[in-house]
Each structure stands twice: as structure tokens, then as C-alpha cells.
Amino acid sequence: MNQIIERTKQFSTQLESLNFSLDCYIYNPLQYAWAMHEAYLRRFVSQKTRTLLLGMNPGPFGMAQTGIPFGEVAAVRDYLRIEEPIKTPISSHPKRPILGLQTTRSEVSGKRLWALIAEHYSSSEAMVGELAVINYCPLVFVDRGPTGKNITPDKLVKVERLALEAVCDGYLGDVLAMVQPQYIVGVGKYAYQRATAAATRIEGVRIGEVLHPSPASPAANRGWASQARQQLTALGVW
Q1: Domains plus CATH for the chain?
Q2: Contact assessment for residue 126 and residue 115, using Cβ atoms and an 8 Å cutoff
Q3: CB-CB contact of 42 with 176 (8 Å)
Q4: Nearest in space to 238 (alpha carbons), one of 113, 121, 125, 136
């Protein structure tokens, strides 16, 4: 399904055309980690898929580094088994360099999510056609301050957030039309809201939500995997 590859390239170009007043570094892994992302799309998102899991935007040690949604390095290397060249952004925060698969820090959210998926599907090949993971917004917003903290899309100036959401909604709607999932599941509240908005274009798709695995969430630190498994089972996904 090469159309999803071409649509994603167009999506990246649309994102590059947006302007943001926020004083931050903006990383677009669809640019510098395109080879990784394209390989992921070809293997896991380029066919009809029963369930689509939707994240919000990349974490600094996950997709920002690998170009793969929730792309914790060990999961990408050992479970998904994708290894392609990764370039570096034109500019980046000194505390948030792009090291690709050489990244030594683990993305906790990605580690938790892919560990749960790997527990259910014995191999990444078994996942194909059953479940795929994408991010609603692939851009990373990094504060220019000394800590280089992540800024999530919902914190953007309203008019700029709405412009970003219009581009991301359009892409998500097209992806849904291409992969024709029975379920779309938002990972966290914001992703659930955006999934709900986009899924109105697709007849018969069921919409659900699972708890976000971020360690910033106290609830997620109290047995996230068991809670997420119960939510996915209750939805009928598993």
C-alpha cells in the first residue's frame, strides 16, 4: 500500500509549512528518521489492520530518536527489528541530541507499551494485520530552557494548535480510510479526543481509550500493563 507512504511524505511537508511562536526546538522525525519510519509503515501499517493504537506525540527518547511511534530503542531493535540510517535535525537542544539506536536512555512509555504488545503477540510478524501503532502528531516540541523539557501539542497557542490539529486530523482520517480498522484506541485522553474527531469519517469503527503509560501518571505507575490489558479486553480488542 504505497499510498500510505506517499501520504505520510505529504503529511511531513504539511507539518514543515506550519509556523509556531513558541520559543522551542522543533524536531520532525519524519524528516531525519524517515528511513526508519518508512520501514515501519511498510511492515506494520501498509495493510488493513484490525486495531489502530493512537499516541499523542513523540517522547524525547522514543520516536524522537528512532522514528517509530513509542519507539523505545530496545523494542525497536529486538521486537520490531528495524534498523535503518537516522540523520540528525538541523538544530537540537544540547540536552536532547538525536543519537538514534545508540540512545542509552529508555523511553518508559514506549517500553511499557511495546512490552504489553510483545506479551500478547509472540512476534512482531504476529502483530501484522491485527494491531498497529501511530502517533497523532509526529512533531517534538522541546523547551529551550536548561532542562529541555517536552511540550505537548495541547499546550500550544490555541490558533497554532488548531492549525496543527487540522493537518493531523486530515492525515489520521486518511490513514483510517486506508487501513480500515475495526477499532481505534487513543492512548491517553488527548489521543482519544482526536481519534473520536477523526473516526466520524469512518463508518462502523469502534473508539476506545487506554490509560497512557507515562511515568508522569501516578495511575500508570500502579500496574499499567494490567490496567491497559483489562481496558483492551473490555473494548473487545483482545
Answers
A1: 2-235 (3.40.470.10)
A2: no
A3: no
A4: 121
CB crowding 151-179: b at 16 or more within 10 Å, else e? bebeebeeeeeebbbebbbbbbbbbbebb
Query: Which residue has better confidence, 46 or 41?
Result: 41
Cα end-to-end span (Å), the chain: 26
Question: The whole model's pTM is what?
Answer: 0.94
- Segment (H or E) for 184: strand 183-187
Q: How many C-beta neighbours within 10 Å does residue 110 have?
A: 28
Q: Is 187 helix (H, G, I), strand (E, B) or coil?
A: strand
pLDDT > 80? residue 201: no
CA neighbor of 107 nearest in space, from 14, 11, 215: 215
Read off the pLDDT band of 1 (50, 70, 90).
low
**Lookup: cell for 68:** 517509530
Q: Can you tell me the distance from the alpha carbon of 226 to that of 41, in angstroms, rounded to the nearest whole number?
A: 28
How would residue 118 be classed by pLDDT, with cut points 50, 70 and 90?
A: very high
Do residues 176 and 207 make contact, with C-beta atoms less than 8 angstroms apart?
no
- Who's near 40: CB < 8 A, 6+ residues apart? 67, 68, 69, 80, 82
- Cα distances (Å, whole numbers) of residue 229 to 48, 53, 172, 183, 233: 23, 13, 24, 15, 6
Cα dihedral sign, 65-66-72-77: negative
Q: What is the pLDDT of residues 72-109, one digit of tens each?
A: 999 999 999 999 999 999 888 989 999 999 999 999 99
Residue 136 and residue 168 in contact, taking contact as beta carbons nearer than 8 Å: yes
